[in-house]
Specification:
Blueprint (H helix, E strand, L loop, with lengths): L1 E5 L4 H14 L3 E3 L10 H13 L5 E6 L3 H7 L7 E3 L3 H11 L3 E5 L5 H13 L6 H15 L2
Parallel strand pairs: 1-2, 1-3, 3-5, 4-5
Helix pairs in contact: 2-3, 4-5
Length: 147
């Protein structure tokens, strides 16, 4: 099951992504926002990231205008490796090399068709381990040292 969240700028985009996930039979929990009323992306980045960090969800999708702000907020939570992504290649390598657990998309940056391809690519890709494990472990060590 995925967690999903967005700010107001990406609300309609998130609703389209939810329809797509429904079509694919992928279960999710929507952490909000639930309207186009102005709100702040860090609220949803933090809420979704905390749920992933607690192990309630293995992966999540976050969406704001660019994907950058909401991914920055999510990455403040220990154990989170969120990637703001606007292409399939980065999506795949972020999983294979960096073991990302949150995909952030920009509703003002990518079209819905590309977003679906990015999501598919990201969900299908698997962490390769090996030399990449050492690097992810190094990131975790940095995180631990700087709490």
């Amino acid at each position: 099951m995925l967690a999903i969240g967005s700010d107001h700028a990406a609300f309609r985009f998130k609703e389209e992504i939810k329809k797509y996930l429904d079509e694919k039979g992928i279960a999710y929990k929507d952490f909000g926002t639930y309207s186009e009323e102005s709100t702040d992306y860090p609220i949803y980045g933090e809420a979704v990231a905390k749920a992933v960090a607690r192990g309630e969800y293995e992966k999540a999708i976050l969406i704001c205008g660019t994907g950058v702000g909401i991914s920055l907020a999510a990455n403040k939570i220990k154990g989170i490796r969120a990637v703001a992504c606007s292409d399939c290649y980065t999506a795949v390598l972020s999983r294979e090399h960096n073991d990302t657990n949150i995909l952030a998309l920009g509703a003002r940056v990518v079209g819905i068709g590309l977003a679906k391809m990015i999501i598919d690519s990201w969900l299908k890709a698997e962490f390769q381990g090996g030399r990449h494990r050492r690097r992810v472990d190094m990131i975790k060590e940095i995180e631990e040292k700087n709490l």
